[in-house]
Amino acid sequence: MIDEIKFYEPQDSYGFLSNFAPAPITLSDVVWPTSEHYYHAQKFVDPAIQQQIFNAETPDEAFNLSRQYADQVKDDWMEVREAVMRYIVFEKFRQNPRLAHLLVSTGDRVLTEHSHKDAFWGDGGDGSGRNTLGKILMEVRNYFSNKEPYNLVHFVESAKLPTQWGTFQMYGFVEQATGKEHLALVYGDLDPDTPPLIRLHSECLTGDALFSARCDCGFQLSRAMENIVNAGSGVLFYLRQEGRGIGLINKIRAYHLQDQGADTVEANERLGFAADMRDYSFCRGMLSFLNIKSVNLMTNNPRKVRAIESAGIKIEKRVPLQEGNNPHNENYLKTKAAKLGHMFDKEFIK
Ligand SMILES: Nc1nc2c(ncn2[C@@H]2O[C@H](COP(=O)(O)OP(=O)(O)OP(=O)(O)O)[C@@H](O)[C@H]2O)c(=O)[nH]1
Ligand SMILES: [Zn+2]
């Protein structure tokens, strides 16, 4: 059986593939509301008709107008229509990164416009049609599938996550290079022109879920979520980089060495690891999915700041996140400051 996605109505699942889906496309300083509007307007040389189609309230109205003026369609339209469609479908996805991510996330499934009315662009309803639109979408998908940041993570699904601080929208991603599952918890509405308050939180099962006081992770996690809710909007990225990238079992090995006197950096090194094995480059994929170009980043870690910047993300402001200092993590925090360069206030680690 072929794995196929059939789409048609823009409000149905995979409706974003339809030309009727709202997807603003800017060309020569004007904004076309949908690819359908643009496509129909190109049939005419008369600028008045083009303008009328541009102004159509809905894509259905744009379609109907083009039928109304059928006798004025330009002579070579049948020769150029496929090229026009290819161009505008490509622009639709290039200019709407969320849609490009969703397109790439369809993987290698066959995309079919399931249209009873159309056997050229669609499948004709019974599968006998040419599905030219589906083929163009698959070509465009091929292009973005091989391109950063679209190939870094695949978005899978989103759902509500009510918490003690407020209700977040949780987005699930799969990192393409490793198969790891990462989360973005979005609170409130993100404005594309304002850098949101974000936290890139590396997984620490012991601190985040098991209340460990050996580190500051659990305390930072709750404060970060609280801060985001208080700010009115923001994103907590939960990155599956357990143990600074060495994994849970190796972190227990490292803790064992620390119980015997090693510090957090020495323990990693004795196990044959670098002090910090994390790679943040895939974060660009999640940020681009959320249309975030610059951020206010909650962290004390200068390596994280550098890594994020070198992954192409602009840090507008660093927001310190000093939480949970206690007798059990006193040495851990001091080592972080001395060897990893964490920027803590003197009072926090005294
Ligand atoms: N290998 C190792 N990992 C640890 C140890 N203690 C905590 N971790 C891990 O360190 C990571 C902490 O990550 P973050 O909370 O992002 O903290 P950070 O990189 O110090 O930076 P900020 O909190 O942003 O300032 C988590 O993945 C923890 O599992 C340890 O002693 N050894
Ligand atoms: Zn921790």
From TrEMBL:
What keywords were assigned to this record? GTP-binding, Hydrolase, Metal-binding, Nucleotide-binding, Riboflavin biosynthesis, Zinc
Gene3D superfamilies named in the record: GTP cyclohydrolase II, YbiA-like
Give the annotated active site.
Answer: 276, 278
Which reaction is the catalytic activity of this chain?
Answer: GTP + 4 H2O = 2,5-diamino-6-hydroxy-4-(5-phosphoribosylamino)-pyrimidine + formate + 2 phosphate + 3 H(+); 2,5-diamino-6-hydroxy-4-(5-phosphoribosylamino)-pyrimidine + H2O = 2,5,6-triamino-4-hydroxypyrimidine + D-ribose 5-phosphate; 5-amino-6-(5-phospho-D-ribosylamino)uracil + H2O = 5,6-diaminouracil + D-ribose 5-phosphate
Q: Where is the NADAR domain?
A: 7-142
Q: What is its EC number?
A: 3.5.4.25
Describe cofactor binding as the record notes it. Answer: Binds 1 zinc ion per subunit.
Question: What GO cellular component entries does it have?
Answer: cytosol
Pfam families from the UniProt entry: GTP_cyclohydro2, NADAR
* Annotated binding of Zn(2+), by residue: 204, 215, 217
Summarize where GTP binds, as residue positions: 199-203, 220, 242-244, 264, 299, 304
What's the cofactor?
Zn(2+)
Question: Biological process GO annotation list?
Answer: riboflavin biosynthetic process
Sequence similarity: Belongs to the GTP cyclohydrolase II family.
Q: What is this protein called?
A: GTP cyclohydrolase-2
Which species expresses this protein natively? Photobacterium marinum
